[in-house]
Each structure stands twice: as C-alpha cells, then as structure tokens.
Amino acid sequence: MKGLYIVVFVTCSTEKEAKKIARTLVGKKLAACVNIIPKISSLYWWQGKIESSKELLLVIKTKKTHLKKLIKEVKAIHI
User: CA 27, CA 11: separation in Å to the nearest integer?
Assistant: First the structure.
C-alpha cells in the first residue's frame, strides 16, 4: 500500500457551502471522493447551552499525507 487512507468528516450549514468545499477538495486532488449527506441533525454545546441544527455532512476520503492541506482549504472556505 503506497499511503495510508483516512476519512474526514465536516459539517456544513448550507448546500452551497458543502458543494464548494467538495468541489475544491476534489478539484485540487486533496480528496479522492466527497459524499454530501443532507438533512442530518446535530446537537452541540454553544455559549453554555445545548443547541441543535440541521446540517449537511461531508464524508471526505483522502490520503493521510493530504490532511494538513485539506484542513487549510476547508478553513479557508468554511463559514
């Protein structure tokens, strides 16, 4: 095996943002594939209380060697 492969999860609040991240990562060959899963329910702590929201989940398949660049790209796009 040439490299170790990993799966990265990212949540997005809009379909537009999810598609932009997915297209950027695949276009720059930082991901082999990105699945966009709509309509997930998320629960999380925010400002001292539990919040919930509807989000989209990105399932990103990539090489471990791409992880740092992938994170940088996601942070540049993610709202």
Answer: 19
